[in-house]
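Student: Send me a single protein entry containing the residue sequence and its fold in token form, directly below this note:

Tutor:
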Amino acid sequence: MTDTPTQGHVVVAPDKFKGTLEGAEVAARIAAGIRRAAPGAEVRELPVADGGEGTLAAALAAGFTRVPVKVAGPTGLPVDAAIALREDTAVVELAQASGLARLPGGRTAPLAAGSYGVGQLIAKAVRLGATRIVLGLGGSACTDGGAGMVQALGAGLYDSDGTELAPGGAALRRLDRIDLGPLADGLGGVRIVVACDVDNPLLGTRGATAVYGPQKGAGPEDLLVLEGGLTRWADAVHAATGQDYRNAPGAGAAGGVGFAALALLGATMRPGIELLLELLGFDEAVRGARLVVTGEGCLDAQTLHGKAPAGVAAAATRAGVRVAAVAGRLELSEDEWRTAGFTAALALTDLAEQPGDSMTRAAELAEVAGERLAAELLVR
């Protein structure tokens, strides 16, 4: 008797494999392998993200429309970015404008990098009629507390001479006064939801500067400058609004952009993968499924703390559907990944014939992984 797939469709919902494959390509390759091993299976590709880099791509793969926007990059030079739009909902990915990957020549600029372009992306979404904006934070090159973002949306930041502040976290040390101007009016009726997976406050040993500054090229002296600027910024926002969000969980996200979103844009925060799965219609996609396949570049201890595969596993388990994982590297023990809800887990490193193949032949090996999972879990 010919082997046939069991009833029910398969949902392939991986995150990107950072440095090798985007989420949509991972999904396509795994799906191709599944179809090869189980030709009769219905396979639905739904790449996901946790609110960081790849959020825009996931929204586009789910049917959102790409809207190109030219904005200021982290150092002020123009970059070609985009937002995703569907009906009255827009997806804005911070990394599109102010991400580390947008730095000219890859040269870090810890003191001068800013978030102005993020505000421009939000403004574009509002002009297009969006009344709900999902703001994905992650991969930020700046530590400006979101000051540039709110400047782009109409707020004025001035020193004691009445001169508008230059971009970047270092300039905030000279901040004397904030004029919120048309900021609130421009966002009237617009709800901003931040996809965020960190709970860092703005300041202190767990704050934006101390934890993330070194990743953005900040040395010891730079860290002192940036912390001083963010402290001045928090004090000025408190004086202007009467509210203090510096210790709010997530205020330190993306160099403090989380702080400005909460304090000045009236944003709410939600766990990134939870918000993205809702936005992408995951619950509907998984209804009646036989299997979900997810994954990311490295399945490790961080995965278990709010990363995309863990979120997918939790949602699929709630729906009573088995979940398998494909990863570039697998650093969890079998007990750990089974406890996290995975029925099976495959690493490209284990499928590779030569060291390095998991990077250089990632697409091919992802297909092999899909084929093996289908043979093991779908075909009878």
About this structure: The chain has two domains: 10-46+282-377, 55-272. The mean pLDDT is 94. Residues 55-272 form a domain with the Glycerate kinase, domain 2 fold (CATH 3.90.1510.10). The first strand starts at residue 10 and ends at 12.
